[in-house]
Amino acid sequence: MLSLGIGLLIGLVLGxxxxxxxxxxxxxxxxxxxxxxxxxxxxxxxxxxxAAALGMALRWRQREIVWPLVALLTAGGVLLxxxxxxxxxxxxxxxxxxxxxxxxxxxxxxxWQQASAHPDAARVVRAARQDSAVRQPLCAIEQGSWGWPCxxxxxxxxxxxGLLSGLYGVGGGFIIxxxxxxxxxxxxxxxxxxxxxxxxxxxxxxxxxFLWSSPLPHGFEPVLLEALLGMLLGSALARRMAGPRxxxxxxxxxxxxxxxxxxxxxx
Length: 267
Hints:
Largest sheet: none
Low-confidence stretches: 124-134
Mean pLDDT: 82
Number of domains: 1
Number of helices: 10
Distance between the termini: 28 Å
Shape: globular
């Protein structure tokens, strides 16, 4: 039953926000089901990639995906995800766990800060500030003008997403969504759609590499099925539930999970 709840939560958060599901998944799988970090990361990657692929299909039908941006972000991510997987095995597990706790803590703080300072803008989970208007985005999508600064920063954002995907088993939507809003000037609906597509491709490729050298984690199937169900539910509720209260609730849950992981790692 616990795996049922974890899978639902992964898909629900991902469907609601386009980000955040995998950041919750790893500590929940470790604390709730007793997974090791590699097993939790692998399960998270597979479930998140599948749920994001379903979300991508739903958003595609609504014409909310900008494919050139998907290709640009995915290219950098696919190149760097093998390095993340290698680091996850080469570094001491304690160091990886502590750095992940730090990442979750920083994300939670930024999410809470964003929801408190700009409640009207808190429609998706993101760990970066957003001004009330994006006046001069780096990527002039509507004019078909990209330019070197746009290509460079989008490539770096994709590379960072791939690195974190391989290292921690996260999808990276908390990086992708603010990048798309701030640098590309996308409406939030399109930012979530592009984020889901990029997560599906990067996490999916990383999961394939993971399976090449590791067995499928025990209990993966129920988590996967419930993540897909959660994605359908989250996508249906996204426009009704998104807002500052949801973002603050997710931030509080992240803090609790980070503290749990910290206690387990240190003691």
